[in-house]
Amino acid sequence: xxxxxxxxxxxxxxxxxxxxxxxxxxxxxxxxxxxxxxxxxxxxxxxxxxxxxxxxxxxxxxxxxxxxxxxxxxxxxxxxxxxxxxxxxxxxxxxxxxxxxxxxxxxxxxxxxxxxxxxxxxxxxxxxxxxxxxxxxxxxxxxxxxxxxxxxx
Length: 153
Description:
mainly beta; 1 helix
């Protein structure tokens, strides 16, 4: 191998290693979701077999995520719904934007709990586990509030 070819091969190898190290190193987590959940509540259900759930998922990270499902011992089924105007539509996931929030509110996007095991009473706390596309599951205790409860913003 000539000196020129060796120098070119060494330069190519050095460039390749630099790219590999740059891709692997220096990860400060800035492109990952950093999720927390707050403001959760269930209004006391009017019916014995169905309830709604509301909460806010805050993402302080630079990467987006998706809420893919919610489980709770209170209900056999939990579905996610979007609301546009007066139209409610069941969806398979809800976006949690980078550096943003997913708000599940009365009259907006929300959770529907069906086939309730029992009708919860005001003051009861219900366990929810939120499952995400990339983040670890988050388990929270959700208070049951009066039917007329509206959170303070």
